[in-house]
Write a structure and sequence with these properties.
Blueprint: E1 4-7, E2 16-19, E3 25-29, H1 40-47, E4 55-59, H2 75-89, E5 95-100, H3 102-113, E6 118-124, H4 135-146, H5 155-161, H6 167-174, E7 177-180, E8 183-186, H7 190-197, H8 210-213, E9 222-227, H9 237-244, E10 248-253, H10 260-263, H11 265-277
Helix pairs in contact: 1-11, 2-3, 4-7
């Protein structure tokens, strides 16, 4: 399998992980509390056994992973940071941009703000609309805030103290925990996310930027992937999706939840390969 090597284009650039050495350029954007490396399995499969089928860039969004933090959340700022990072890694080249959940919204805004940079777009289990609040994530935020970082003795100790009963969700959230010497910290900008969640129905992360509605539609091909067991995409979302992205094709994966690429990685890989070849 092709190796994955960390890269940074400049001190202020978003942190990235590269997979593959040839072929079209593909950028992968993760969801809230995620990291670029969450897409590693998919990227390795898409790039092929020798890494020559695609050049994949796994991006840590601002406030996530090893990327810089911001003082205020903004979809436009996130999109501009992603666009600058893609230009730094592939000057003059167009990309297929794949985004899940929060990353899917960012990917859509990248395509609307920087259409010349995006050859194709893949949006995974999210729609261009306001989801009202981060209510679903408030429990996770509370669990993370309650973890006594100053008392932890090991990662095993953190796992034992962390209250989340779902083992998969626990592992996903605790990937954000980092040890520095004898101290522990959250790598994700938890304070910013918690402050946004506290805004309730005014959450910017859960929302959709009004300025995006004023931009011309993106006329490139769009693959819109939905988890069959997820509630993030509704029938009525199709109208808004097609208004922004007229060349949208919806693909629903039966039995998959919101984390579609985790629940059905082989199907996602096949869908991406076909989309790239079409």
């Amino acid at each position: 399998m092709p190796s994955a090597a960390p890269e940074t284009a400049s001190p202020a650039a978003l942190n990235t992980l590269s997979v593959g050495t040839g072929g079209p350029r593909i950028a992968f954007l993760h969801g809230l509390f995620g990291q670029g490396r969450n897409w590693t399995q998919i990227a390795k499969a898409v790039s092929g056994p020798h890494g020559a089928d695609a050049r994949c860039l796994l991006v840590d969004l601002p406030d996530h992973g090893r990327s810089p933090w911001s003082t205020e959340f903004s979809f436009a700022a996130y999109a501009d940071a992603v666009a600058a990072t893609l230009r730094a890694h592939g000057p003059g080249e167009a990309w297929t941009v794949v985004g899940h959940s929060l990353g899917g919204k960012v990917a859509m805004v990248v395509a609307l703000l920087h259409p010349e940079l995006v050859e194709r777009l893949v949006v995974v289990d999210i729609a261009p609309r306001d989801y009202v609040s981060l209510e679903r994530f408030e429990g996770y935020i509370g669990e993370m805030q309650r973890l006594p970082l100053g008392e932890l003795t090991s990662r095993g100790d953190a796992e034992a103290r962390f209250e989340e009963p779902d083992a998969g969700v626990k592992a996903f959230l605790l990937q954000n925990l980092r040890r520095e010497g004898h101290t522990w910290r959250w790598q994700v900008n938890l304070d910013l996310i918690a402050a946004d969640a506290a805004r309730g129905a005014e959450s910017r992360i859960a929302g959709w930027p009004e300025e995006a509605d004023a931009l011309p539609p993106y006329d490139g091909p769009v693959l819109w992937v939905a988890g069959g067991d997820s509630r993030y995409i509704k029938r009525e979302d199709g109208e808004r999706m097609r208004a922004h992205f007229p060349r949208t094709r919806l693909f629903t994966i039966k039995g998959a939840g919101h984390w579609v690429h985790t629940d059905a990685p082989d199907i996602i890989v096949t869908a991406l390969r076909r989309f790239l070849a079409s």
